[in-house]
Design a protein that fits this description.
mainly alpha; Cytochrome Bc1 Complex, Chain D, domain 2; 43% helix; binds heme C
Length: 145
Amino acid sequence: MSRRLGLLAWLLPALGACGDGNREARRSQLGPDPTLEQRMAIADPAAGASLYGPCSACHTIGRGGPDLAGPNLHGVMGAPIGHRLQRYGYTAALRSVGGDWTDAAMDAWLASPSRFAPGTKMNYPGMADPLERADLIAYLKSQSR
Ligand code: HEC
């Protein structure tokens, strides 16, 4: 048992190192200013999973997981923005955005939460890389069953 754990401890960082799903190779398939649709067409949920680490400081994502500083994110894609979980206290800033978490809305939110919903309490600066955002959106979509 402890030998197995030892092996895991050795394997996990090795897996992490190749967890970007060949992002640079995929990036080279895109033109200089790809649309969200073009990015989503080559997005990789497994590569997105390896970008989720910073989010997990404030969000669980498993079905039925607890809210931390931020709400549990299971099934968030397609759900109403800032109105999905009755039990969670969303800010008026996020509640008043309106609409659903489409790819486009999530892309804008992840790029800059404070620009998307000025006054939000999600204290996260944003993710600058458009392909990383697409990978993360693909991962969020995969966490809905
Ligand atoms: C420092 C804590 C923190 C970090 C880090 C963080 N969040 Fe959040 N997140 C929050 C809080 C707090 C809210 C609620 C915002 C509000 O009500 O204004 C939120 C809201 C959200 C929502 C809206 C959920 C809904 O039900 O409408 C999504 C989606 C989300 N976060 C995704 C992410 C992702 C993806 C990451 C990682 C890139 C991330 N967050 C990083 C704290 C955080």
